[in-house]
């Protein structure tokens, strides 16, 4: 059940100028949150930012009571969050939305494809898959090396593959041109810029590979009340906040074909 929770910022890191990592502590038993679900963060101290901002869970440790957010600075809200210091308080509503399917065969050849802030939920997902005995491959892409904020964190749980449009790190090209992408996978999960996810989904559909996409439409209420996050699916309009953000592409032909 979604609830409001107060957290304290235990640690703040800035791996690149555009990204900040906040490790939050609850100080008690924490409500579990599944990979792909998200929190709505209250941004205080800036009158231009009235609505909470949706942010994925980058990492969560229910036993320790910690939750980690990876935040890309794009506007007033995220800039304000990035300016917070260790010891500051943060008010979150969670768990929100439907996350990734992790109940898959342990023998599944599994690929996670992430770009930009879409890399965030893939660490929590990698850990969940690893706990089930699956070692996924994680393919992370960005326009340039500084736009891939994290990758070493994945190494205990996944085989990491990198690519950049300008060749500054890893394979030179987009994620869909990485040689590993065209291997035969049983399951692909993706989160990142919409054109990237659509290209991944189209390729997966052509190759009959099961695939889940995590959409990052603009949101307001985050709970299915305002309809501002609606996306067109083969089953009609769906709220990304309530019915997603994760969707199986078997219901998303209309979305990925346009
Ligand atoms: C389910 C979900 C999970 C998300 N997880 C993360 C995460 O883990 N880390 C992270 O950094 N960001 C994440 N986002 C995106 C994040 O919510 C937005 O970047 C943030 O709300 C922007 O707030 P702002 O006040 O800084 O920018 P605004 O002033 O609101 O906008 C600044 C610019 O960013 C664009 N923008 C705003 N929201 C989005 C969006 N959702 N997608 C693309 N462009 C947007 C606006 O069009 C504008 O150009 C997620 C979004 C969703 C829906
Ligand atoms: S954000 Fe309001 S319905 Fe999804």
SSE pattern, N- to C-terminal = EEEEEEHEEHEEEEHEEEHEH
Radius of gyration: 17 Å
CATH class term of the largest domain: Alpha Beta
Bound molecules: flavin-adenine dinucleotide, FE2/S2 (inorganic) cluster
Order of strands across the biggest sheet? 4-3-7-1-2-6-5
The total domain count is 2
The largest sheet, given as strand count, sense and whether it forms a barrel, is: 7 strands, antiparallel
Task: Tell me which oligomeric state these chains represent.
Answer: single chain
| Count of extended strands | 16
- Overall residue-averaged pLDDT value: 96
Spatial gap, N to C terminus? 35 Å
- Name of the CATH superfamily of the largest domain: Nucleotide-binding domain of ferredoxin-NADP reductase (FNR) module
Q: How many alpha or pi helices?
A: 5
Helix content: 10-25%
Q: Ranges with pLDDT <50 over ≥5 residues? A: none
Beta-strand percent range: 25-35%
Q: Predict the CATH topology of the largest domain.
A: Rossmann fold
What is this structure, in a nutshell?
16% of the residues lie in helices and 34% in strands. The chain contains 5 helices and 16 strands.
Provide structural commentary.
This protein has 258 residues and is α/β, with parallel strands linked by helices. The chain folds into 2 domains: 3-96, Elongation Factor Tu (Ef-tu), domain 3, CATH 2.40.30; 110-214, Nucleotide-binding domain of ferredoxin-NADP reductase (FNR) module (Rossmann fold, 3-Layer(aba) Sandwich). Helix content is 16%, strand content 34%. It has 5 helices and 16 strands. The chain has helices at residues 76-82, 120-131, 194-206, 240-243, 253-257, and strands at residues 3-16, 19-25, 38-41, 53-56, 59-61, 66-72, 89-96, 110-115, 137-142, 159-164, 171-172, 187-191, 210-214, 230-233, 236-239, 246-248. The strands form 3 sheets. Strands 4-3-7-1-2-6-5 form a 7-stranded antiparallel sheet. A hairpin with a 2-residue loop joins strand 14 and strand 15. The protein is globular, with a radius of gyration of 17 Å. The chain binds flavin-adenine dinucleotide and FE2/S2 (inorganic) cluster (FES). Residues 38, 49, 53-56, 70-72, 74-78, 117, 120, 216-219, 245 line the site of flavin-adenine dinucleotide.
């Amino acid at each position: 059940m979604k609830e409001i929770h107060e957290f304290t910022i235990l640690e703040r890191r800035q791996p690149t100028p555009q990204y900040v990592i906040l490790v939050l502590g609850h100080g008690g038993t924490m409500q579990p949150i599944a990979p792909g679900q998200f929190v709505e963060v209250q941004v205080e101290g800036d009158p231009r930012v009235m609505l909470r901002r949706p942010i994925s869970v980058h990492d969560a440790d229910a036993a320790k009571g910690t939750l980690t957010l990876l935040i890309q600075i794009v506007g007033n809200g995220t800039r304000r969050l990035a300016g917070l210091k260790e010891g500051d308080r943060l008010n979150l509503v969670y768990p929100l939305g439907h996350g990734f399917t992790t109940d898959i065969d342990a023998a599944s050849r599994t690929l996670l494809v992430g770009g930009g802030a879409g890399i965030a939920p893939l660490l929590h997902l990698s850990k969940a898959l690893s706990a089930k005995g699956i070692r996924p491959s994680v393919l992370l892409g960005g326009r340039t090396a500084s736009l891939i904020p994290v990758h070493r964190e994945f190494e205990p749980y996944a085989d990491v593959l990198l690519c950049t449009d300008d060749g500054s790190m890893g394979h030179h090209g987009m994620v869909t041109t990485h040689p590993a992408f065209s291997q035969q996978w049983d399951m692909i999960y993706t989160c990142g810029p919409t054109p990237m996810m659509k290209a991944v989904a189209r390729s997966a559909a052509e190759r009959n590979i099961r695939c889940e996409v995590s959409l990052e439409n603009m949101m307001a209420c985050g709970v299915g009340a305002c309809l501002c996050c609606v996306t067109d699916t083969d089953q009609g309009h769906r709220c990304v906040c309530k019915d997603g953000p994760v969707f199986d592409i078997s219901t998303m032909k209309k979305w990925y074909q346009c």
